[in-house]
Write a structure and sequence with these properties.
two-stranded parallel sheet; 12 helices; eight-stranded parallel beta sheet
């Protein structure tokens, strides 16, 4: 039996689908049983457990050949990362009591970084789980290609994408969730001893400029990338997050190069899914959702959601000079507008 947490999400779902395709028995670990019904219909054993409930997790993991651990993201952690420390302690207790045969923990690129940032949450959990004697693989994927979902509307309607990743010609290790799920399922079925790290990225590294070019090819219209000045990016993060510093430092880490694979590009495992395939899926999904008019307009400012970047920002912050600028509307949407001449 393979116990899968996070199965109702993109990555956990991909893991489960790959295991089922290999005719492996799957135990779906969910917080809400009603949300797991679709997996029960596919033949999965359904159990309820919250990531912070050691007793329920112990029951969910007990008797499992392998366990896939995915913790819910926390984009506003406390400065001391107390939430991650609590989750780590709970997971350690549950795994120690359940004693599954193997564990694959979904970590992140840069988990070995010594500078504190948003990804430090995974550093903490890796360190605590590393105290266990059972076989554990820490799977560290790169930047998710699916993060480009935030860019579909602006690319489609405005031909401009704002980039917090810079320089915009700097290659970034990115990977598709389909590759993460496939590789995680493969790892769960392997046999190994002790602890190991597997670092995963896509077929090749991707620059922000390549994202814009790929959108342009798929949409049949010009699309360009505009870098967000750091001081503007900081202002946006402060307006958007209760605890903005970890996220600001994470972006600094990617841009300055200290968030990188421990084994660098040469030592990472390469996925199969190209950026083009991921962006096409995101575009198709956006086109389906656009058939609902109520989702296309901001209630407060009546701006089409095609020109809203789904981020809150400080009123009147210029993101870039030139004929176009980005301003926050009174409703705190960030909208691309024309500069007055």
């Amino acid at each position: 039996m393979f116990a899968i947490t996070g199965i109702t999400g993109k990555v956990g779902g991909e893991v489960a689908r790959n295991l089922l395709a290999a005719n492996q028995p799957v135990r779906a670990v969910v917080r809400d049983l009603s949300k797991g019904e679709a997996w029960a219909q596919l033949g999965c054993d359904l159990v309820r457990a919250d990531i912070n409930d050691a007793g329920a997790l112990t029951s969910a993991f007990k008797g499992a050949e392998s366990v896939f651990v995915l913790v819910p993201p926390n984009f506003d952690p406390s400065p001391d990362f107390q939430e991650a420390r609590a989750t780590a302690a709970t997971l350690r207790s549950a795994l120690a009591a359940a004693r599954p045969g193997r564990v694959v923990y979904l970590s992140t690129i840069g988990a070995q970084a010594t500078q504190s940032n948003l990804l430090t949450q995974h550093t903490i959990i890796e360190q605590v789980l590393g105290e266990l004697s059972m076989p554990i693989t820490f799977l560290r994927p790169g930047w998710f290609m699916e993060n480009c979902s935030w860019d579909v509307a602006s690319a489609t309607n405005d031909g401009v994408i704002l980039s917090f990743l810079q320089p915009i010609d700097k290659p970034v290790p990115m990977v598709a969730t389909a590759d993460i799920g496939r590789v995680a399922a493969e790892l769960l079925q392997e046999t190994w001893k002790g602890h190991r790290v597997v670092e995963l990225e896509g077929p090749h590294r991707v620059t922000p400029n390549e994202i814009a070019t790929t959108f342009a090819d798929l949409l049949g219209r010009p699309v360009r990338m505009e870098p967000v000045p750091r001081e503007t990016g900081v202002a946006i993060q402060i307006a958007e997050h209760e605890e903005p510093i970890p996220r600001i430092k994470m972006l600094d880490g990617f841009n300055e190069g200290w968030i990188e694979f421990e084994s660098a590009e040469a030592g990472s495992r390469k996925g199969k899914v190209a950026l083009e395939a991921v962006l096409q899926t995101l575009i198709d999904r956006d086109e389906k959702s656009s058939s609902f008019p109520e989702k296309r307009t901001c209630d407060h400012c009546s701006i089409r959601t095609g020109t809203i970047l789904r981020r809150r920002a400080v009123m009147g912050v210029d993101v870039s000079p030139g004929p176009r600028r980005v301003l926050a509307s009174p409703c705190q949407h960030l909208a691309v507008v024309e500069n007055p001449t």
